[in-house]
Amino acid sequence: MKSNAMKSIAFSIICMLLGILIALQMKNVNVDSASEKSMEELTNSIIDYSQKNTELNDRNAQLSRYLQQLESDYADGNTYLESILKEKERAAIFAGLREVRNYGITIRISSSPGIEIRDSVLRSFVNELATLGAQAMSINDERLVATSEIRQSNHDILINGTMFERSGLFEIKAITDPKDEDNIFLYLDNLKQTINEGLGADQYTITIEAADELTIPALSEDSAAFRIDLLTPVVS
Amino acid sequence: MNQVNPAGQADGQQDRHHHLPQNNLPQPGQGLPGQAAKPTGSSAGKPPLPKTSSGKFVSWILNYKTRQKLMLFFLFLLFGIVVMNHVKNVNEQNKNDNLTSQYQERQSELKALEEQYNQLLANNEALTKEKENSISAKLNQQGYDQLLAELETIKMLAGFKAVSGSGISITLNDKPDYVNTDPPDAIIHDSDVRRVVNLLINNGAAALSVNGMRIVNSSFIHCYGSTILCNKDYMIPPFVVSAIGPPDQLSAAILQDSVLVQRQEFGVVVKVEKKETLELPAFAESDNFEQYISLLEVTTP
């Protein structure tokens, strides 16, 4: 009887231990822990912010130097005007208000008889070129800016308020970095293939060429693309 | 109180056992009344041996002591497995604890960098403002009003000035409670954001921003993994596209777009709000835009 009691006690102890261990295991399974993927995202964010902070630091230092130089030039006379005029000119180039030239890519798109070109095709190439670092672009010599419309209307495509027949030729020009030529051609060829597969290879003829120098015209301040009459500068 | 008698019965309780009369108790070798007599001798009292091997096995299983041993065996086996798993989990937990502590350190580091970024950005905005005010003041003092006006116009056209006006805000978001088994159309892609931007431009938008980032000539919107890259900023949903322009026309263009309507059937959120006054910031790199025109040579002076 004593040995039976001992056996029962041992049995009970083992069952209890088993129960405790199972409970602990279940607790471990339910505890949240940082995944490797979250760590990678966190590391990428840290790198991103570090780079941004370094860049901002440099920009702030440059601004401080500019302000000091401006005060110094102003004290000396009218030499401060030179830096202001230079900045005005650079801003005008950025805004698309100056005719520019350099190495670039020309994409010519025409359609088979009876087929009309879609505005979405033009926008696809424009978006791709922007992503690939194009610094200036035009379609049929209409300079493109941030608010340029590329809009299909019946048998025409409107660009900056100018109408072009959809059955005609569209020529997209872009000034790009010659060092990126291979990469740019790769992406543009892929896009061309995608468009041809989607629409049918016999519908469009698309050619892509590089040129050592091409010219992109300026956009006038009065262009329909600029609608600054709707904008009020914020004064703080 | 009930008393239990030596026979194990409580007083007044019905007996639950069948007791045989004493003179009817079977003698060794004798079976129970009605049963055949059992053989006597050395085999007397032992259960008869099974005739087949499966019968032998079953009989062995049914034996109490065997059952007890088997139960103990399986119990110890389970105990061993659980202990082994527990040790493995403890090791993994230690590894996770290390990872968790590293993660917490990195989180603190990121937080410090974000605070530094916000401070540097505030400094940048203050310095840019100081530069603008300084230039305006000097040109005004010296009577260069026309030059100042031209400079201000060019900055507006370039997107270098914060602007306000009436317009709309569009919020694009993934399907709520999106799961991996949902179709790709249930989340917002870069093409959706571009589509909204293009619709707004084609319907009269004069200035736009995406998640607070002003759209200018050098802007592009591109997919980057699970984020969208816009003006060097990696963005996650929701995406808020704001546009200054004719609110009714802009709003109709978005609400009536067949592609956006179809996407909403997959659960994607497209929310349009008209605004009487909307403020869009200046291009964040208006003091650092040279990199975006470095390849451009002006043909006319």
Uncertain segments of chain B are 1-44
Calculate Rg of chain A over CA atoms. 32 Å
Largest contact between chains: A-B, 90 and 94 residues
Strand order of the largest sheet of chain A: 3-2-7-1-8
What is the residue-averaged pLDDT of chain A? 90
Separation, N- and C-terminal Cα atoms of chain A? 95 Å
Taken from the alpha-carbon principal axes, the silhouette of chain B is elongated
Count of separate DSSP helical elements of chain A: 5
Approximate strand percentage of chain A:
15-25%
- Tell the overall outline of chain A: flat
SS-derived structural category of chain B: alpha+beta
N-to-C SSE string of chain A, H for helix and E for strand: HHHEHEEEEEEHEE
- Strand tally of chain B is 9
Cα radius of gyration of chain B in angstroms: 44 Å
Biggest beta sheet attributes of chain A: 5 strands, antiparallel
Oligomerization category of the chains in this entry: heterodimer
How does this model look, in words?
The complex is a heterodimer of chains A (236) and B (301). Helices cover 50% and strands 22% of the residues of chain A. With 236 residues, chain A is an alpha+beta fold. In chain A, the strands form two sheets. Chain A has a five-stranded antiparallel β-sheet, covered by helices on one side. A three-stranded antiparallel β-sheet of chain A has the order 4-5-6, covered by helices on one side. In chain A, helix 4 (119-131) packs antiparallel against helix 5. With 301 residues, chain B is an alpha+beta fold. Helices cover 44% and strands 16% of the residues of chain B. Chain B is built from six helices and nine strands. Chain B has helices at 53-62, 64-141, 145-158, 190-202, 247-255, 258-264, and strands at residues 163-173, 207-210, 213-214, 221-224, 227-230, 233-235, 239-244, 269-280, 297-298. In chain B, the strands form two sheets. A five-stranded antiparallel β-sheet of chain B has the order 3-2-7-1-8. Chain B is elongated, with a radius of gyration of 44 Å. Mean pLDDT of chain B is 82; it is low at 1-44. At the A-B interface, helix 1, helix 2, helix 3, strand 1 and helix 4 of A face helix 2, helix 3, strand 1, helix 4 and strand 9 of B.
